[in-house]
Amino acid sequence: MRARVQELVLDCGDPAGLVRFWAELLGGDPVDRSADWSYVDPPGFVRLAFQRVPEGKTVKNRLHLDLEVPDPAVAADTAAPLGAVRVGGLVTDAQGSFQVMRDPEGNEFCFVTG
Known about the structure:
This protein has helices at residues 15-26, 72-79, and strands spanning 7-12, 31-34, 37-40, 47-52, 65-68, 85-93, 96-102, 108-113. The chain is built from two helices and eight strands. The chain is of the alpha/beta class.
């Protein structure tokens, strides 16, 4: 048997707010199924769902998204007004560049190139 990824679910405190951030970043229309569950179907990607949980985020994510962009610095500048925050500086090596970011609830993700 092989399983297929249906969606990625992020625990959060504000599903409706967080889905709008990710929909703006990746495309797609935010859907609020209930006060505790929202999702977006970004073009060319698996569904991202957001479920309300009572506890806040306290440690680094064990899983994060790498989002390919033409220029990580420009992408970070674009994401900041949406509520994203840079973590450290732009890292460049022989393989390309990446910028670590946090979404409005502190979930890490990276803009990458190369």
